[in-house]
Design brief:
This protein is mainly α. Among the domains are: 104 residues, no CATH class; 133 residues, Alpha Horseshoe (Serine Threonine Protein Phosphatase 5, Tetratricopeptide repeat), CATH 1.25.40.10. The protein contains 19 helices and no strands. α3 crosses α5 and α16 packs antiparallel against α17.
C-alpha cells in the first residue's frame, strides 16, 4: 500500500507540476531533481518530521540559487493554476530555508498571494498549516486574520486583528490591516488612529497613502451630507482638566497594550474627577468586557446611555455586554437585548459596519442557542 502511495505521489509530482514545462521555471540539475523527487515521495502533512531530516541529509545542495529556483517554480505553478503543486513547493522551500538558517516565509508568501486574490479559503488552510510548527507568530496570525476577512467573515476577522495588534503593537502591517478594516467599516477615527500609528513605526509606510485616501474620502462624504440625520454627542472631555485628559489617554494606551488593571485604574481616576466622563466610561467598560466581566460593564453602560443617548459607541458596548451575559448565563433573552442595542447603534450611525456585523453574528448565535 505504501509503495502505491509513493508511486502515485511521484506520478502526481511529475504530471501535475511539470516543473520544466514553463519557460519561467529554471531547470533543476540531477541532484536537485533527485532530492525534490524523494521529498515528494513523502507526504509532509502526514509525516512532517521526514522533510527536515531529508533536507539535513541534502543540505549541500540547498544554496541561494536552489531556493531561487524553488521560488520561481512556485510562481510558475501558480500561473499554471497548479495550487497543490505550489503549496508543496512552498512547503519544501520553507523546510530547506530553515535547514540552512535562512528566512523561511514561502508558505506565508503563498498565503498572502491568495489573500490578495480574494481566495481566503486557500489562505486559511495554508496559515493553519504553518501554525502547526510556528504557533503564536504574529505575522502568521495576521495573515490568518486577513485570510478570514478575505473569505467574507469580517466579523470573525475583527477580534483576530485586535489580538495581533495587542500582542505586537509595533507590527506595522498589523496596524495597516486593522486600519484598512476600519476604513471598510466606515470607522474614520479608528482607521486614522491605526494608520497614524503605522506611520509612527515607519514614516515611509504604505499607511501614508492610505491616510491621504482616508482623509479624501472623509471630505467627500462630509460634502455629500446636506443635513445630519442624528445629533452628534457633545464631547464632554473638551471642558475637562488637563489631568483628566491625560488619565484617559493613559488608560487608552494601557488598554491597547492589554494592561487591563492599570488601564482600569486610569479610567477610574478620571471618573473621580468627572463621574459623567463618557470617554472614561467607554474605556472602563472596554476593560470589563475584555475581562468578560459583563456584570460590571452593564450598569455603568446603562447609566452612560442615559447621559448620552445618541452615542452609538455606548450602545455597541452595551450590546457586547449583553451578548457576553447571554453566553455566560445561557439566557437567550440577553441576545435579544444585544441585538436591540446594536440596532440602536446602527440607527444612530448608519455607517457603523461593526455593529452591523455584530447583529448578524448574534442572529446566528440565536439560531444555534
Amino acid at each position: 500500500m505504501n509503495k502505491r502511495i509513493i508511486f502515485f505521489t511521484i506520478i502526481f509530482f511529475i504530471a501535475s507540476l511539470s516543473l520544466e514545462a514553463f519557460a519561467a521555471t529554471p531547470v533543476f540539475d540531477e541532484k536537485e531533481r533527485e532530492f525534490i523527487t524523494e521529498a515528494y515521495s513523502i507526504s509532509p502533512t502526514l509525516r512532517p518530521v521526514d522533510w527536515p531530516k531529508l533536507a539535513k541529509r541534502n543540505r549541500g545542495i540547498i544554496t541561494d540559487e536552489f531556493l531561487d529556483k524553488l521560488e520561481k517554480s512556485i510562481d510558475a505553478s501558480l500561473r499554471a493554476k497548479r495550487d497543490q503543486g505550489a503549496f508543496y513547493l512552498a512547503y519544501l522551500a520553507d523546510v530547506c530555508a530553515e535547514t540552512v538558517h535562512k528566512k523561511s516565509d514561502y508558505r506565508l508568501g503563498l498565503a498572502w498571494y491568495y489573500i490578495k486574490s480574494d481566495r481566503g479559503g486557500e489562505a486559511i488552510d495554508i496559515c493553519n498549516n504553518i501554525r502547526l510548527t510556528h504557533p503564536n507568530d504574529p505575522n502568521i496570525e495576521l495573515a490568518l486574520a486577513a485570510s478570514v476577512d478575505a473569505n467574507g467573515d469580517s466579523a470573525g476577522a475583527y477580534p483576530m486583528y485586535l489580538d495581533v495588534v495587542r500582542r505586537a503593537p509595533k507590527n506595522e502591517a498589523a496596524r495597516i490591516y486593522l486600519g484598512k478594516f476600519y476604513m471598510k467599516m466606515n470607522e474614520y477615527d479608528r482607521a486614522k488612529e491605526q494608520l497614524t500609528k503605522a506611520i509612527e513605526i515607519n514614516p515611509n509606510s504604505e499607511a501614508v497613502g492610505l491616510l491621504a485616501q482616508l482623509e479624501s474620502e472623509r471630505k467627500l462624504k462630509l460634502a455629500e451630507v446636506k443635513t445630519p440625520t442624528v445629533s452628534t454627542p457633545v464631547n464632554v472631555e473638551e471642558t475637562f482638566s488637563p489631568e483628566a485628559k491625560e488619565l484617559i489617554a493613559d488608560g487608552n494606551r494601557l488598554l491597547e497594550e492589554n494592561n487591563l488593571e492599570l488601564a482600569a485604574s486610569s479610567f477610574n481616576q478620571a471618573l473621580a474627577i468627572n463621574k459623567n466622563s463618557i470617554s472614561a466610561i467607554e474605556g472602563l467598560a472596554s476593560v470589563y468586557l475584555r475581562k468578560k466581566e459583563y456584570n460590571d460593564a452593564i450598569p455603568i453602560l446603562e447609566n452612560a446611555v442615559k447621559i448620552s443617548p445618541t452615542n452609538p459607541v455606548l450602545h455597541r458596548l452595551l450590546g457586547t455586554a449583553y451578548e457576553q451575559k447571554a453566553e455566560g448565563t445561557g439566557v437567550i433573552l440577553f441576545l435579544d437585548q444585544a441585538i436591540a442595542e446594536y440596532e440602536e447603534a446602527v440607527r444612530l450611525n448608519p455607517e457603523d459596519g461593526i455593529s452591523q456585523f455584530y447583529i448578524k453574528r448574534v442572529q446566528e448565535k440565536k439560531g444555534n442557542f
